[in-house]
Design goal:
It is a single chain. By secondary structure, the protein is of the alpha/beta class. The protein has a single domain, classed as Rossmann fold. Helices cover about 30% and strands about 20% of the residues. It has a seven-stranded parallel beta sheet with strand order 1-10-9-6-2-3-5. The protein has a three-stranded antiparallel beta sheet with strand order 4-8-7. Helix 1 crosses helix 2. The longest helix has 17 residues. It starts with a strand and ends with a strand. Bound molecules: 6-phosphogluconic acid (6PG). The site of 6-phosphogluconic acid (6PG) has 15 residues, from loops.
């Protein structure tokens, strides 16, 4: 089970500070690219806006979405489109997920979580997919989540676990209860599968 640190009541600014420190630390340790994966949904975008205010060389940052909805990039539901609009003007590279891509080891896997315990687009009722050893997969959530009822492309558990550190941003009491059960080993949801496979530090911002 992962070594999990929970940071309570973290605002967007505090999370952006933490992300900037992590990215800065990796940048200072070498001169190559810093590769991270980030969630979609709604939570990350205000944090990314705060991160972009930090004094970092964003031209060294390579950003992989955790997952995306199969929609054009200019569609309001596209994670990649929103990430690209925010990050590319700052010089960062945003990768388009395609199933042929070779996924690198991430310096940081930043994840969100749904109240049903899904992470990336790995939903609770996708058990064979949770055991899948491919790096990226296309899937149809069943049922389709009402807030974003689209087919998905997603990094898999092995890809997300191939990271030096993991961070979650999990807001609200409903999600917190799901997280606490997963941390206590009392759950079989995708978030719990990830935590049980994690041997790197995990930081959860609530
Ligand atoms: O594209 C997506 O839908 C995701 O990557 C997904 O896993 C998201 O992180 C959670 O559903 C939390 O989403 P919210 O931040 O909107 O609650």
């Amino acid at each position: 089970m992962a070594d999990v640190t929970i940071i309570e009541n973290a605002g967007d600014g505090a999370i952006a500070d933490w992300l900037a420190a992590r990215i800065g630390e990796v940048m200072a340790a070498g001169d190559g690219p810093v590769t991270i994966t980030v969630p979609g949904g709604s939570t990350p975008f205000p944090i990314i806006k705060e991160l972009l205010e930090k004094d970092l060389d964003f031209s060294r940052l390579v950003v992989w979405p955790n997952d995306d909805r199969i929609v054009p990039e200019d569609h309001e539901a596209s994670n990649t489109g929103k990430l690209r609009a925010l990050l590319e003007p700052a010089g960062a590279e945003v990768v388009t997920l395609t199933i042929m891509e070779a996924v690198p080891r991430f310096d940081l896997a930043w994840l969100g979580m749904g109240a049903d315990g899904h992470i990336a687009s790995l939903f609770p009722n996708t058990d064979p997919q949770l055991r899948d050893q491919r790096q990226i997969m296309r899937l149809t959530p069943d049922p389709l989540p009402p807030e974003a009822p689209y087919d998905r492309i997603s990094l898999t558990l092995p890809s997300l676990l191939n990271s030096a550190q993991i961070a979650f941003v999990i807001r609200g009491t409903e999600k917190r209860a799901v997280l606490d059960k997963a941390v206590a080993g009392q759950s079989d949801l995708p978030v719990a599968r990830l935590l049980s496979g994690a041997d790197q530090p995990v930081t959860c911002f609530t």
